[in-house]
Amino acid sequence: AQSVTQPDIHITVSEGASLELRCNYSYGATPYLFWYVQSPGQGLQLLLKYFSGDTLVQGIKGFEAEFKRSQSSFNLRKPSVHWSDAAEYFCAVGERSSASKIIFGSGTRLSIRP
Amino acid sequence: EADIYQTPRYLVIGTGKKITLECSQTMGHDKMYWYQQDPGMELHLIHYSYGVNSTEKGDLSSESTVSRIRTEHFPLTLESARPSHTSQYLCASSGSKSTGELFFGEGSRLTVL
Predict the structure, then answer these.
(1) With pLDDT > 70 as the criterion, what percentage of chain A qualifies?
(2) Whole-number pLDDT of residue A45
(3) How many other CB atoms are found less than 10 A from the CB of residue A14?
(4) I need a labelling partner for B101 at 20 to 30 A (CA). Which of A20, A104, B27, B35 fits?
């Protein structure tokens, strides 16, 4: 069965510092991969997605993620965080065969230190 | 811009009451989903639908029920609410030709006293 692991429950970084949020997945083949962000009291918004091709994908708000097949990872990065980036971040995988069911990781809460 | 709406945003209700959480989307998406989000943030799929008159249970067992009579509408009902149903419920949709990208509503936070 497919699964998604986000090993970091809570991360705090200083404003202006770089960020990397980890995501590992377990799946028989290469799935579709997503990163979503959730601000307090809101729904989820798609940051970026990987389907095929270039393994480094660019998203909104200056985020990027790199798919590494050998490590079954899809880590999210940002070179310089802003206070407005404080939120919950979810990694997710989808089935290529049906693309109908998306499985989410447990999320990483990002706090920004002034 | 995604257009998916959930009402009510917040609901506080007593045990035993019947509640319906509404979800509507204006994008013509075939697929719609309900996720339950625990206080610790994790999302669990409780119901999904691939089109009109199609509904399936998700990975997390839920006492709620859903219906899909119209493409744009996917309401969730609890016949008799209990404190264990207290949670946030997120509705989402995706197009039939998409590669799985979900569009989410803002959520309905339910508190059962």
Answers:
(1) 95
(2) 93
(3) 10
(4) A20
Q: B43 pLDDT exceeds 60?
A: yes
Amino acid present at A40: P
Which of B59, B94, B104 lies nearest to residue A44, judging by beta carbons?
B104
pLDDT tens track for B3-17: 999 999 999 999 999
Query: Are A47 and A35 within 8 A, CB to CB?
Result: yes
Alpha carbons within 13 A on the beta-carbon side of B82 = 4
Q: Average of pLDDT values for A56-65?
A: 96
d(CA A92, CA A31): 10
Q: How far apart are CA A35 and CA A26, in angstroms?
A: 16
Percent of chain B scoring above 70 in pLDDT:
94
Q: Which residues of B touch A90 (CB under 8 A)?
A: 41, 43
CA-based nearest residue in chain B for residue A94: B100
Q: From chain A, which residues contact B within 8 Å (Cβ)?
A: 32, 34, 36, 38, 41-46, 49, 51, 88, 90, 94-95, 99-104, 106-107, 109
Of B41, B45, B99, the CB nearest to A88: B41
Which of B24, B87, B102, B109 to mutate against chain A (most A CBs within 10 Å)?
Answer: B102
Cα separation values, B66 from A71, A95, B60, Å: 39, 23, 14
